[in-house]
């Protein structure tokens, strides 16, 4: 009979307690599935006396995560503290140095220090696994690393921050402004302590950087992501996009191009009938595209006790079964430096602007677009009661450079009222 | 350096050639991802002289699959012949007996002989893997066996036959009858040589039986599936369902109930706004539900050279990495006998009937429903030009027994024109 797999769990917040619950409740099931008993040796959290709704008295307590990570009776260090510096990083490094396997839900840690940690893990012959770090309960790391191992991955697209998707869908359904829904979500505790992590796209970009590394065999490159949050998405754009059969999503996209690796996190339009367009509320969705498989879509809860604990358990079970593949799908020392794309691939764009109510205003706009090489696919001018006319344009595929040239030239026409909004339309 | 992993591929149809192509085209990538070279030692197909569009001259040829399966220079036998008896079964058994790992895309073989084969594989300490057997390119076996290993699985729901989904969506979009679209699909070569495998739900039921075994730790039990194909789905029902905001799908459902394991493959209604309701054409979709994760939805191509070969490669890569878990997620000798549910769980039902144009006809129907304990959620009576009036009813949750009692009693009312249609509405 195999020896039990002994865990040390650092961080007893929602997810940590979720992991403890599953291990207690499903001990027999986990043993049947992995061939080994999975037990908790020790835990660690800031306040040992807090009532967490589950009895922890049978586990050794540590107040120091590094002390926990290096205990002799711990085989796997489960890091659920969070943050890319300080305690979490120190403890993960100490665990790997002490020959422990590591399971973490820490996207920031992986996105920023993934390369060094992967090298440390592989040098030590240990696993460093992080299914819970990306898209919560969706087994997307496994799908990409193992399920699509026979594919040259061509693109990864995802909605990977449930709070942003909640805000955008709530704006549409309730007809509220970004500021109103932001305040509402913040009041309900839906946002991180630093809300910029959510609405600024940082959290989602951490996840994208991780997926991108696996997909393209490149060193994780968070800084290479063109990053824009959802704070400039207005209810007017949501309504106008809907009018043209689109939804606005905070979309992470990573793809190989002839000009380097394109990684971006930005509000984009997607067709309202596409799986991404139909994704409402806090749910996550990731599209994985490969040369053999075509497109796979994975959808599920991106956060919460159960879903995140489910992902942590998947990693623990894999380790119990003896699975110890390279951290990012290929050996870390063979990952190539990511060369950020010099420009984004051409795409159609959505433009919304107000034109002064002057004869020939629209013709002027059409002319500068044409001169910049931007051709118009669809255009709508709306009835209006004041002196400016709302106009929506969907362009054919164009380069961001041509679009920017056109936007610059528009300013010189003297017919614009205010600044035009331009949003990329993603082909999904 | 690890030794190369040597394959013997039996069956060089679309999928077999797809596998050969990937291995040739992506040799370096596969080696980087698995740490081993993956090579083809030998192949086997009926006609060695046929032009398959890819050069096979560097591989040894066998005319007998069992001879291929037992060659000394084969580590993994890749069975892409198909069929649950005869050559495929003999060769898989021979491969396992000879200590080879086996990868197969053969859903019928697993659904019918899965238990014996799993026992043989595990006794020999070999892998028997079949990602390609269920839902084509979607890594659903991996998601269920590994990705959700920390979950008590509560339900599996899927659209797993692309041809049926194509027929149903094409009926709706073109307004054609089942017979017309069937003939069209058959003419286009979309259906199996024996179309009953598709439209009778057998192919999809094979897949459901496999998923059900993994999900619930039961011996694969194809015969325990309540099976009904799509041939009684009429264009009238598709239109009427759409009128009530539903789509009709050939849905496979497996769930544990207090009365045993419920496994069924039948046309069901699903809300048209649900991911399943929005699934058009030949795409597959599987919903996996677990106590921790909630619901995960996986969507992707269910057939075709690339997607199926992608799934075969995932298995090959796992074997190259040394992954050899139990065939159905837990050791085969611990799988319990499935106890088929004595009755299906209660559900809402859709009823469509024509009533004689007599006073009080609808009241009679409502009365017998009420007497059987079936309550009405929504009801619509349509205008009509002949002597019978079309009526649609959506019931509240009811047991199939109560529904059948009501349907029986309706016959006695004398107000029915023709036989009512009843379809289950699945909560997805």
TrEMBL record, chains A, B:
EC primary class: oxidoreductase
Residues covered by the ACT domain: 350-428
Binding site for NADPH: 107
GO molecular function, one term: NADP binding
Enzyme Commission no: 1.1.1.3
Catalytic site positions: 207
Pathway, per record: Amino-acid biosynthesis; L-threonine biosynthesis; L-threonine from L-aspartate: step 3/5; Amino-acid biosynthesis; L-methionine biosynthesis via de novo pathway; L-homoserine from L-aspartate: step 3/3
Keyword hit for rRNA-binding: no
GO terms of biological process kind: methionine biosynthetic process; threonine biosynthetic process
Amino acids binding L-homoserine: 192
Keywords, in A-Z order: Amino-acid biosynthesis, Methionine biosynthesis, NADP, Oxidoreductase, Threonine biosynthesis
Highest taxon above the source species: Bacteria
Descriptive protein name: Homoserine dehydrogenase
Upper classification of the organism: Bacteria, Pseudomonadati, Pseudomonadota, Alphaproteobacteria, Rhodobacterales
